[in-house]
Amino acid sequence: MSTTNIMIVGVGGQGSLLASKLLGNLLVSEGYDVKVSEVHGMSQRGGSVVTYVRFGDKVYSPLVEEGEADFILSFEKLEAARWAPCLKKGGTIIVNTQEIDPMPVITGAAEYPSGILEELKSKGVDIDAVDALSIAQKAGSAKAVNIVLLARFAKHFTIPVESWETAIANTVAPKFVEMNRKAFELGYNA
To answer: Which stretch of DSSP H or E encloses residue 136?
Structure first.
């Protein structure tokens, strides 16, 4: 099996690091060689966060270079645009339609760009857009956006739903397992 390259991108505080940990745990349990690398950036101040997850029979490096990502899971639209050059031809961006204003927008120095997803689509990028925030809120917490996106991502693989549910149970705090299972179910069926 060739190596599959995944980037999980978002803004600090959205749960992208937990998502990468959960995905890594799942893939290891399925027998893959897995490498995960986290780049925090200004995550504690709402800045961009990126995590690389690579898996296959044998993986030698955790980093995904420009034009190599099979999938990008983007927790926010502007982050999808920021990291789109890393997507390989034929790759897919799974994106939460949520907009989180970066500091220049908050301070009034810039405006949040409109038509981000439409522009990416016009360049031939395969976009799988989902309102993960609304689905997460239906599950019980806006913080479950990460699980909703992973559920949407799960539809691109043949890994059984039960394996994903086990990974959730083994990764998240016990008091949040049921809420995250519900978020996964709602996201998977959206």
So the answer is: helix 132-139
CB burial readout 11-40, b (16+ within 10 A) else e: bbbbbbbbbbbbbbbbbeeeebebbbebee
Whether the Cβ atoms of residue 72 and residue 84 lie closer than 8 Å to each other: yes
pLDDT at res. 44? 53
> CB-hemisphere CA count at 13 Å for 112?
14
Report the CATH number at residue 88.
Answer: 3.40.920.10
Degrees, nearest 5: CA angle 147-64-10: 35
Is residue 16 within 8 A of residue 49, CB to CB? The reply is: yes
Count up the domains in the chain and report the number. 1
Are 106 and 145 in contact, with CB atoms under 8 Å apart?
no
Neighbouring-strand partners of residue 32: none
pTM: 0.91
C-alpha span between 104 and 43 (Å, rounded): 16
Dist. CA 188–CA 185, nearest whole Å: 5
Task: Compute CA distances 168 → 7, 52, 176, whole Å.
Answer: 19, 19, 9
The mean of the pLDDT values for the chain is 92
The DSSP letter of residue 131 is -
- pLDDT of 103 strictly over 70: yes
List the domain range (segments joined by +) for residue 115.
4-189
